[in-house]
Request: fold
Amino acid sequence: MTAGNEMRVSVVVPAWNRKDTIRRCLDSLFAQDFEGLEIIVVDDGSTDGTADAALEYEGRPGFSLLRRPRGGVAVARRDGFRASRGEWMLFVDSDDYVAPNMVRTLYEAALREEADAAVCGWCRDRNGVVTPLKVYKGIPPENGADAMARIVLKEGSRSGALWNKLLRRSLFCEEDFDATEGICHVEDYLLVALVLRRAERVVYVPDILYYYVHTPGSVTATPSFEAARDIFNVALFIHDLCLASGVTSWRALAPSLLASEAIYPMRLMNRKKSSEAREAKRAMARRVARIRMTEATDVNVRVQMELLLLKAGLFHPLYTLCDVLGLHGILRFMRRLTAVCAEWKTRISPGGKRDGTIS
Reply:
């Protein structure tokens, strides 16, 4: 890492009350085998000493700390972007960490393929147990429209995170950050959709380079009314955005995206008892029920069944019954058993192939 003026890659780290994890995150970034890196920590009004922990890195080449009143992660990302100087942008969550060759690997792949974005695999760290969750193996570079269809529409919010993507600065604009302001859940998925649609070429790196840390009590890990609302509204926004586009594949996949992404927040909203939640539940059901079965062709069997239940008016009564009788544990066991059987069948099937993705 150099202290020169040539900053090729800017890493923005939004942080709010992460004093216990910010050092691990920054240590992994300062361990990068890459010259021309700047690291910007945006302290979003922390009250637990996060800024003091980050200040321990003051004086290191390329490091800077921005302090701002609490405004949310979307605003923190925007302020970090405004302060950055790099031609390429990487956003890393303050409770996660990265492999020491992440920046160099993504940067070299993007330059080699003349791409606007480079995407790598990632894994989950839960209490020190690391599990690969996404591996892009054997996928050649593709144009931006196909990458948008793959990452945003087919894979959904699970793989649409911002943190495993190196993106050319010119893909961003101020309106992108404005669109995500006030959203506390999957706001990075929305930002990826807004930005990736402008890419002309995207390259995939087969290595796992990002470590997503499961943090109990975090915004992502805490189901709430706000979480359900945000997840649904982001899915609906992306759905409408794709339907309004002139890209045939986006328009074809948009209904499947909405059906797949809406099911979880609708199940979550079913457990909320406030009048606001009841009205939101009804509005979600009305909107998703408008999707025709012939449109939602890229969804799994469970989503197809739940869509049918919605159309028949049985979705919420069934899940309410599951809540009352405590049947969710049985449903989870049956889903796991189905997944194991499918995996076993794939392994023993003659000529069966695996695409390298671990779900």
Observations:
- Confidence is low (pLDDT under 50) at residues 351-359.
- The first helix runs from residue 22 to 30.
